[in-house]
Amino acid sequence: MDIRDRYLPPSLRRRQILALAEVNGFVRVTALAHRFGISEVTVRLDLDALANEGHLIRIHGGALPAGDRRAEERTFERASAEAPEEKAAIGLEAAGLVKSSQIVMLDAGSTTNAVSRALVEKTDVDDVLVVTNALPIAVELELCFPRITVLMTGGTLRPNQHSLVNPFGDLLFGEVRADIAIVGCNGVTAEHGVTNMKMPEAEMKRAMLRAASRKILVADSTKIGTVSNTRIADIGDFDLLITTKLADAAEVARLRAGGLNVLQV
């Protein structure tokens, strides 16, 4: 901390907070308190003031810049076009964890869709049952029948994500016990855990995790160090995070220190 920051007037401090949010895409209450040498209460007052002026969007633990792309839900197609090489590498690694005769849960998302594409090419497994709430994943894996059978969850369609959610989306999970669940997210940090943009998707992810013995998180580098609106789970609820070597090294170190096994491909 620059000692001069401790004596900044509120108006100037708030301008600097806004600049930090715009550069980093997210600001944390704890980090700002340390940065400016002020209390977390004062930081929250600053963030609330900036949010009331329309400059920030307040979320748990911090704020996003207004209009930031992470504050708006992207379509499945748009998300799929971002970091495709990373998602393909992650998908290949995650698919390698799947064994013959297993029950696998895959949630809706562009990274988990990359897992399904890798499963199509994984010809050394047989008699696999994939449970999913994602229409694109079902279509991808249709090519593999009868080597891979797809069981759809049912539920209510969300067109932007081509996913099935509550009401009636999670009824199946009380009847099936999976060997492995592979789920994606919009953000993961050691401090705030694993988060997602929309509550309906987060509910389905939590239901899948409860129904599976092994829990795998897949996230490209843009998700590491990012916090989104809705909590999915703590990092300790996962057995493994698969990401890439482009992920923020400091945040990866914090995740590992918090007990999460992180594999970078």
Brief rundown of the structure:
With 265 residues, the chain is of the alpha/beta class.
Search tags:
265 residues, alpha/beta, 7-stranded parallel β-sheet, 3-stranded antiparallel β-sheet, 9 helices, 15 strands
Q: What count of helical segments does DSSP give?
A: 9
Unreliable stretches covering 5 or more consecutive residues: none
Q: Going across the major beta sheet, what is the strand order?
A: 6-5-4-9-12-14-15
Oligomer: single chain
Radius of gyration: 20 Å
Shape: elongated
Distance between the termini: 35 Å
Chain-averaged pLDDT = 90
Helix content: 25-40%
Q: What is the structural class?
A: alpha/beta
Q: Per DSSP, what share of the residues sits in E-state strands of 2 or more residues? A: 15-25%
Largest sheet, in brief, is: 7 strands, parallel
The number of strands is: 15
Taken in chain order, the helices and strands follow as HEHHEEHHEHEHEEEEEEHEEEHE
How would you explain this protein's 3D organization?
By secondary structure, the protein is an alpha/beta fold. A 7-stranded parallel β-sheet has the order 6-5-4-9-12-14-15, sandwiched between helices. The mean pLDDT is 90. Helix 2 crosses helix 3 (40-52), helix 5 crosses helix 6 (110-121) and helix 6 packs parallel to helix 7. The protein has 9 helices and 15 strands. The chain is elongated.
